[in-house]
Fold Asparagine--tRNA ligase.
Amino acid sequence: LRRTKIKTLLESAEADIQVCVKGWVRTKRGNKHVSFIALNDGSTINNLQVVADPNIISEEILKDVTTGASLSVVGKVVASQGSGQSVEILAEAIEVIGKADPDSYPLQPKKHSLEFLREIAHLRPRTNTFSAIYRLRHAMIFAVHKFFNDKGFLNIHTPLITHSDAEGAGETFKVTTIDPKNPPMNEEGEVDYKQDFFGKETNLTVSGQLEGELAALAMGDIYTFGPTFRAENSNTSRHLAEFWMIEPEMAFADLDDDMDLAEEFLKYLVSYALDNCKEDLAFLAKRSEDEEKSKPAAERHDMGLIERLQFVRDNEFQRITYTEAIDILKNSKPNKKKKFKFIIDEWGADLQSEHERFLVEKHFKKPVIITNYPKDIKAFYMKLNDDNKTVAAMDMLFPGIGEIVGGSQREENLDLLMERMKQMEIPEHDIDWYLDTRKFGTVPHSGFGLGFERLMLFVSGMSNIRDVIPFPRTPQHCEF
Ligand code: 4AD
Ligand code: MG
C-alpha cells in the first residue's frame, strides 16, 4: 500500500478505501475507549484525524504515540463526524517510526512565542505557522519563475564569489583561504592576496546585477534569483546578512518600463498567493490579526492581511519624484502620537524609514514608487538625469515594509559612467569587463532588485524577517 499525502486525502479521498498515511503527531486526546490522533505531514495546514480503537491498536503502541512522534498508519477512510474536515481514518495498524520523548520534545501543544521558536529554528517547520510560511515561500518562488518565464525572460545564474562590490557600500563578506594567524606578506609589508586562492581579494556577492547586465546586453530580457550577502551591521526586523534577491534586467528599456515591470510583478505575486495559497493565507491572516491586538494602536495595520493583499492587487501604485516627496515631508507636521516623529533636513538627504512610512501609510495610503533620487546617495551605475543632480533611480515602498524594490535605468554612456566611477573612486581596471558592454553595442537598459524576504514579510503578514526564511543569518546569529 503506497503512502497517500494528507493534502490529497483531505481533498479527494472516497470513503471506505484503505490508505496508508505517514506523518508527525501534533496531538493525541481521548479516553480508555478511543484515541484521536491529529497527524500532519507538511503537505497542508490541516491535520488528519486518526481514530484509534484500543481493541485494534494495542496499548503498547498507543503509549508511544505522543506529540512529535512519527507514524505510519494504515486504515480505512470514513466520513468525519466532527466539523471542519471531510474525512478521517479508522486505524487498522499503526507503526511508530520514531518516538519523541514527551519530557524533552520542545514543541508540546501550546502557544509558543516566535522568539522561542527562533531559538529552535531546526524544529519550527513542525509548527502550523512555519509550515504555512514555508509552503507560501515555495509558492512565491514558483510564481517568480512562472511570471518571468511567461514573459520570455531568461533565468541567469550569477556568481556568488566575486571580486566586485556592485552596490559600492563596502559591506561585503570576505572570501579567503589565508590563515589570519599566519598570512603571507608582500614586500610592502601588506597581506599578499596574490597568494590567496583566487590570486586576489574576493568576497560574497551583494547583488547579481552587474553580471545580469552582461547577460541582458546579449540576450535581451533576463532575471537572476539567488542568495546575496551583506555585512551591514543593522539589527532590524527588515535586514538579513543572507537574503534572496530577484533581479530582472531589460535591454532597450527606460525607467518607465522598469517601474511598469516592477508594479506588474508585485501585483502578479500577490495575486498568485491569493489564488493558490488560500488555506495557508487564511491561517496566517488569523495569526496576524491576533498579533495586531497586542500592538499599540498606532502600530496597527488599517486592514487585515487578505485585504492588504487585495488592495495591492487592485490599486495603482503612486509614482512621485524624490523632490516631490521631500516637499510633502517638509509640509507635513509630525504626528502627535509619535509614530511619525520626523524632521527632514534639506534636499539631498536620504529618506529614513519613518519618512517612507509616512508617505506610504499616512499620506498616500498605498504603495509608492519614488524616482529620481540625488546622485550622491545612489550607486555608481545609475543613469544621470539631464539636471545633472539626480539619477534615474526608483525605490518601491510598501505599507508595513518600507523599501521592497530598488532599481534604476543604468548609465549606458561610457564617458559618463567613467566620470561617475572616477568621482566615486572605483578603479577602472576592477570592472573593465563591465565597461566593455558600454564600449561595444551599448543600449539603454534597466532593472531592479526585489528582496524576496521583504516580499515574504508582506505576503505572510509576519513582522520579523527572521521568521520568513528557514535559516536566518543576522549579526551574532549563525546557527548550524
Ligand atoms: O536596493 P538594493 O541594495 O539594490 C540592489 O542591490 C540593486 N543591485 C538591484 C538592481 O537594480 N538590480 O537591494 C534591492 C532590494 C531592496 O529593495 C530590499 O528589498 C532588499 O533588496 N534588501 C534586503 N533584504 C533583506 N536584508 C537586507 N540586508 C537587504 N538589503 C536589501
Ligand atoms: Mg535600495
Summary: The first strand starts at residue 18 and ends at 30. Residues 166-167, 207, 209, 230, 232, 239-240, 243, 245, 247, 403-408, 447-449, 451, 453-454 surround 4AD (ligand 1) (CB under 6 Å). Residues 128-151 form the longest helix (24 residues). Residues 6-110 form a domain with the OB fold (Dihydrolipoamide Acetyltransferase, E2P) fold (CATH 2.40.50.140).
